[in-house]
């Protein structure tokens, strides 16, 4: 067995971003789950509490960064999985474009929701 | 000089009984990843409709969903999926950094056991008030 293994790809910007977002998401996903299921039980959450949390700049910024990181990590993960399954050529370009567009739409809509939760719109 | 083992392709699921720990880890990481990205899109869609009008709609949407036992059970499932993806993700990051390759099968089993323990321990919290 190899003494050292790494999937590191020096030319891969997406490779690095996938791992950087992974590290960020380990903390934020655990925090999100813990805060909204264990500290505040999901069944007891009301708009007033959500608005109070989202009105704090730090929390709001963290949630927006969480959305952006999770969307990139998820959409790029799906793309990698499909390429790994043999996607190539025109199909690869079309699927990549559709996934990138879906990701941008999700981030835009997610930010809209975040502003609605903060009571800004 | 490194040794390599030809275990065949993981996509050949018909021979799943021959799969090694690493191949199961690969399959579980892919499966939990698909579930999480699917949930992310669904989560934003539900929150979009819940925040589209006045706050009472948001409160009714959340209390309505939380009143369903199936939603509470699915939440435990979602936690299990997220915890496994996080723990196995840490395992993958460490292996990529050259740490723990020799124990990658043991760290996969540890991820599974810890996921199971956290999911079971969370059941009382998720099911509180559901009956």
TrEMBL record, chain A:
One of its GO terms (cellular component) is membrane. The keyword rRNA processing does not apply. It is found in: Membrane. The keyword Nucleus does not apply. This is Succinate dehydrogenase hydrophobic membrane anchor subunit. The chain crosses the membrane at residues 20-39, 59-82, 94-115. Its main location: membrane. It holds the Pfam family Sdh_cyt. It comes from Halapricum hydrolyticum. GO terms for molecular function: metal ion binding. Keywords: Heme, Iron, Membrane, Metal-binding, Transmembrane, Transmembrane helix.
From TrEMBL, chain B:
InterPro entries: SdhC_prok, SQR/QFR_C/D, Succ_DH_cytb556, SuccDH_FuR_B_TM-su. CDD domains: SQR_TypeA_SdhC_like. GO terms for molecular function: electron transfer activity; metal ion binding. It is found in: Membrane. GO terms for cellular component: membrane. Pfam families: Sdh_cyt. GO terms for biological process: tricarboxylic acid cycle. Keywords: Heme, Iron, Membrane, Metal-binding, Transmembrane, Transmembrane helix. The keyword Heme applies. It comes from the Archaea. The chain crosses the membrane at residues 31-49, 69-87, 108-130. This is Succinate dehydrogenase, cytochrome b556 subunit. It comes from Halapricum hydrolyticum.
């Amino acid at each position: 067995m190899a003494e050292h293994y790494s999937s590191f790809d020096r030319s891969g910007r997406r490779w690095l971003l996938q791992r950087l977002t992974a590290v960020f998401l380990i903390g934020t996903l655990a925090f999100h789950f813990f805060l909204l299921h264990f500290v505040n039980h999901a069944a007891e959450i009301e708009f007033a509490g959500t608005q109070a949390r989202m009105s704090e700049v730090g929390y709001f910024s963290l949630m927006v960064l969480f959305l952006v990181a999770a969307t990139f990590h998820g959409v790029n993960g799906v793309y990698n999985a499909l390429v790994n399954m043999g996607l190539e050529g025109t199909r690869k370009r079309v699927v990549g474009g559709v996934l990138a567009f879906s990701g941008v739409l999700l981030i835009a809509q997610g930010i809209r929701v975040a502003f609605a939760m903060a009571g800004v719109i | 000089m490194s040794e390599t083992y030809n275990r065949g392709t993981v996509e050949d699921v018909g021979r799943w009984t021959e799969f090694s720990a690493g191949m199961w880890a690969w399959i579980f990481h892919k499966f939990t990843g698909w579930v999480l990205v699917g949930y992310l899109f669904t989560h934003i869609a539900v929150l979009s409709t819940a925040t589209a009008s006045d706050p009472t709609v948001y409160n009714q949407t959340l209390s309505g969903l939380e009143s369903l036992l199936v939603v509470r059970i699915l939440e435990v499932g979602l936690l299990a999926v997220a915890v496994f993806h996080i723990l196995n993700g840490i395992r993958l990051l460490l292996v990529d950094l050259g740490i723990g390759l020799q124990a990658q099968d043991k760290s996969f089993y540890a991820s599974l056991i810890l996921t199971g323990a956290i999911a079971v321990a969370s059941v009382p919290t998720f099911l509180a008030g559901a009956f």
